[in-house]
Amino acid sequence: MRLTVNGKAIDIDADPEMPLLWALRDIAGILGPKFGCGIAACGACTVHVGGVPVRSCVLPVGDVEDNVLTIDGLAQDGRLHPVQQAWLEEQVAQCGYCQAGQIMTAVALLDEISDPTDEDIDNAMGGNLCRCGTYPRIRAAIKRAASLKAGA
After folding, report:
1. Same fold across 2-72 and 82-151
2. Where are the domains of the chain?
3. CATH classification of 2-72 is 3.10.20.30, yes or no?
4. Domain 82-151 class?
5. Residues with Cβ within 8 Å of residue 86, at least 6 apart in sequence
6. Whole-angstrom Cα distance, residue 119 to residue 44?
7. Is the pTM of this model over 0.85?
8. Is 107 helix (H, G, I), strand (E, B) or coil?
9. What is the mean pLDDT of the chain?
10. Which whole-number Å values give the CA distances from 40 to 34, 49, 67, 89, 118, in the listed order?
11. What is the mean pLDDT of residues 67-73?
12. Torsion angle (degrees, nearest 10) of CA 109, 125, 107, 16
């Protein structure tokens, strides 16, 4: 099957029931999305399919019919996405394991709501778990990213 991932067409020779996460990591060599739980409960594997955040650990690759965007394709023209920039400025990451999924979920939130409230952030990010507990920094980074996007 052929997928468009991060703007590039790639051929995937896999069982259509294979989770997209494993097709990305093991076949395409795209390592940004992480395996966290395998049951769509933690968010570490979050990617966008057709602009919508999805948990790639449970989405069969054969069901993917739209463009896939991973954290690996988020930066453009050598410039970080505003969410990535805000993550750095707010020093969000500690261990960093969950951050790809956190960032991809935050990007989708800001694509939908340009100036989210704390409640909007909690609702959007609630399914993304961080063992290090960087939630206050995540919220601050999302607010900073909203400002960066507004000024861009």
Report:
1. no
2. 2-72, 82-151
3. yes
4. mainly alpha
5. 141, 142, 144, 145, 148
6. 21
7. yes
8. helix
9. 96
10. 12, 15, 20, 29, 24
11. 98
12. -110
